[in-house]
Design a protein that fits this description.
The complex is a heterodimer. Chain A is of the alpha/beta class. Chain A is built from 7 helices and 11 strands. Chain A has helices at residues 47-54, 77-87, 103-113, 120-129, 145-158, 175-192, 203-206; strands spanning 5-14, 21-27, 30-31, 36-40, 62-67, 70-71, 88-91, 163-167, 195-200, 211-216, 219-222. A 6-stranded mixed beta sheet of chain A has the order 7-8-9-4-10-11, sandwiched between helices. In chain A, strands 1, 2, 3, 5 and 6 form a 5-stranded antiparallel beta sheet that branches. Chain B folds into 4 domains: 1-55 and 245-412, no CATH class; 60-243, no CATH class; 425-473 and 695-837, no CATH class; 486-682, no CATH class. Chain B contains 29 helices and 20 strands. Classes of the chains: A alpha/beta, B alpha+beta. Chain A binds chain B through residues 52, 55, 57-58, 77-78, 81-82, 84-85, 89-90, 92-94, 96, 98-102, 104-105, 108-115, 117-118, 120, 137-139, 141-142, 155-156, 159, and chain B through 409, 411, 413-414, 416-427, 429-430, 433-434, 436-437, 735-736, 739-749, 828-830, 833, 837.
Amino acid sequence: MKAILETKNLVKYYGTGENLVKAIDHTDIRIEPGEFVAVVGRSGSGKSTLLHMLGGLDRPDSGKVLIEGRDIFRLKDERLAVFRRRKIGFIFQSYNLVPSLNVWENIVLPIGLDGRKVDQEYVMDIIRRIGMEDRLHALPNTLSGGQQQRVAIARALASRPAIILADEPTGNLDSRTEIEVVNLLKNCVTEYGQTLVMITHDESIAQMADRMIVIEDGKVVRA
Amino acid sequence: MKTVTKTALANVRQNKVRNLISGTAIILTTLLVFMVLTVGNASVAVRFAGVNAYYPPYHAMFRQVSEENVQKLSSHNDIEKLGRRIDLGEGVEDDSTVLLMYMDDTALELNRVELSEGTFPKSGNEIAFPEAMLGEYGLTAGIGDEIALPFQLYEEDGLGYQKEDTFRICGFLEGENGSEQKSYPVLVSEEYMEQTIPEESREYRVMFRLKDVGKNIETTDAIEEEVKGIGADFGVQEDNVVINTEYLLANYIDPTALFGIVCIVLVVVMAGVLTIYSIYYVSMVPKIQEYGKLKAMGATKRQIRQIVFREGLLVTAIALPLGLLVGSLIAGPVTEWIYRLGGNIKTEYTEENLNTICMQLLENGEVQILTWWIYLVTILTVVVTVYLSLVKPMRMAAKISPVEAMRYQGERPGKKQQRKGFQEMSLGRLTRAGLARNKRRSALTILTLGTVGILFMVVATVISCAAPKEIARQEFEEDYKIYVDSWSGDKMNPDREWENLMQNNPLTEEFISGIREVPGVEKVEIKTYLSGALTEIDPESDIAGASIQGLGEDYAKEMEDCQIEGHATYEELKSGDQILMSQNMMRWFPELHLGSRVKMTLPVGNKTVERTFQVAAIGDYPSAISWANFLLPSSVVEEIAAEAGESVNLNDACEIRVDSSLSGSEREETYAALAGLAKTSEYLETDSFEQHLGNWETTMMIFGVIGYAFLIILGAIGIMNLINTMINSIYTRRRELGMIQAIGMSEKQLVRMMQLEGLFYTAGTLLVSLGLGSLAGYGVFLYAKADGMLNITVYHYPVVPAVALAVTVAVIQLLLTYAVARSFRRMSLIDRIRYAD
């Protein structure tokens, strides 16, 4: 089966001399469509940098990131931004909802930025799944952490990206909500046939994934 | 407390951008306050210095004071210094006046008598006089030479017999040569005076300065009262008290000018407070978390307030001296420049010599332009400005609880729970939502910028309405004017009284036909004039007299058009018992109104005519038509003269129109020919439209340049605010923006969003500036028109300044957006997202 997401000899170093940090050190990974992959590792192991590279947010020093076989860093910035918003959905640890927009607006924002029409049925379906159908007009600062993260998940799903990249999406949540949110994410991805790459340092969350990639000092030690 | 200062210092370094911007705003505020005060003060100081150098600086003079009283007066408590002069006699010489007198040193000083050569008479038969007098006597002599002068001594009942004495010349006095009424003072020594006049018959003139003038005694009236009081104590008759009115008037400060300066400073302070406050308020939002942390670590409210305040003070400590330095460097040249331009304005009231003296004083650096108290006032004003700007941010920082601070996102949570929002999102809607969330900040920025804009539009309106050509037209009817120069109340020149001039009027029929014959003259209008007193209301003409301008049939339309109350045609006025009154009269005499019966005593030659007129209409006519208080048809004025039975000529002015097709040089020739005609009589003066136009053009240029320079600096203060808002709105949201980029906003879209925000501020600012500014400008125009300020009569919308303002704001906004976006894009997306995590 053809990989949906692939890195080839990916390298990203920060600093020089004594301060040199090998955030990603000649890493090769391969993710199949529809997979749920958990990336685990200690704090500072290079997980987040890897995720940023996968999503095209940051450029590597060398190596390639292929999405559906296409080298994304050969794209110009402007094209990359467009490619990103169509193919990838991001979920961050600190929710990052736009404070001036209500729940609905936050969810449909990426579609709007892409200049597409909103598929109302589809989005409402997602919102029902995250259980926020009666809070559509609420502003983010009135929501709990769990609710905000659910909105962030809905936002990542709404534009039907092929890949969802989640950077410790449950890091700020209590353990009960944590399981709930990951379950929700997993079910959605399965239902809409998307690929999910999730960073976590929580073993129990990682256990819920199809596969685990362990990173230490920028290198994949177990895939 | 040391920790507080250290923290404040660390904050200064950390908030570099904000402090650079607020520092610039403080520099500009300082500069403006300093310049307004310095230029204002310097112009007063230069004038004082000029006046002191030009007029004799005594406050008053007593005549006929005995030797004994002179002694007593010189030790009088209220007198600062006193000089005495005694006139001995007159020289015998036909066509000039030679006056022998003695003056002591103080009198010489108080009369500004100066030597061009030699010394003042010290003893014996030494004398000093203007060198030009030698020519008058047909003598040639130098210092040290002896000359014989014939003279007559003053005696109790007039001049004594002619006698002659031999004098030794010890010095030549500085003095105007070739003045019209040739009069020469001859100074003699004290010894000679004492020998010539016995002590009991000495009668001095004493000139003196009062001690408390400027402190307890401020107005001319108060000085007069004080002087008369002292005079009465010493038996000086009121006739013998002379107040040096010219000097006192020249020294008098117009309180409205001071009020104006204070108002301008207040405007600057207001703009400064708004701007600096807005800069601190806007950039306080991202700092709130830090203050919260400090609080969590145990800082008290007071300490937090102090940290904020000291940070502001530290910036001020650098910016304030810089502003003062720049101000100190440019104050001198700016003042000189204003005076140089001002020197081009010549009106009939201009004392040309005084202006020259002022200019010289400035050029030689003899007037101190920089004074310590201005530095002090500026420092105080700016510190107060900074303090006022910081009160709110200080309170804001101190009030917030540590927990709240950690969560603080710029807007208090829970204020607004819901947002109706849109079904579909777009860049525009996202931008709008962002601006709506920061309503207060957006409004504050627009308001501060708009305030400067409003001020700009008001000044621009005034300048645009005060069109030099129109103003000059208000003052001047045709192209050229020859008029009889009369004035009253001058005992030295009784020939200038109108009732005397009308018997010896140079504006004869013959003279007027001479004017008509000058090539290029197209039309000549004659105005007649009568002047007298309002018999019942103001018999002494203390407030205003009964000046009447007589106008010919040609003015019938103007006379009717200018009527603002009541109505009277030229024909009706010809009946002779009705009169058209200037509306100014109602200001001076509130009891006068339409229909009032006004009794006048009108001197005609050696007789007087009494007439009572009914006010048929009240008019508001430009000074070009007349500055007289009443208007009548010429025929009525002639009738009054005929009633007196005197043969008089009431012609007052010839308004001359010159062929408009003439070339510049032909016009000059015509003017020169007319001026030549006027020169045939010393009672005639000339004036031209060009002269008035030139004066107003220069005045308006100075006014415009100063006004706009002031506004540009004020505008720069406002722009500091805009820069701060732009930078803050982007940088405090860098994480949010980074995140939006991560979920799909492209760089192009980001820049467009910044542009949209910029556009919002631009549009808002322009809406406030042009909208409210135009309204305020119109209001000021109405006020100026009602008040006769700058002779403004017609409203002109300041199109060019308005367009320039719009373009400037838009361009600055664009450049700013471009710069901010550029610097923002240099930061990698990852850094933006990581920020504050």
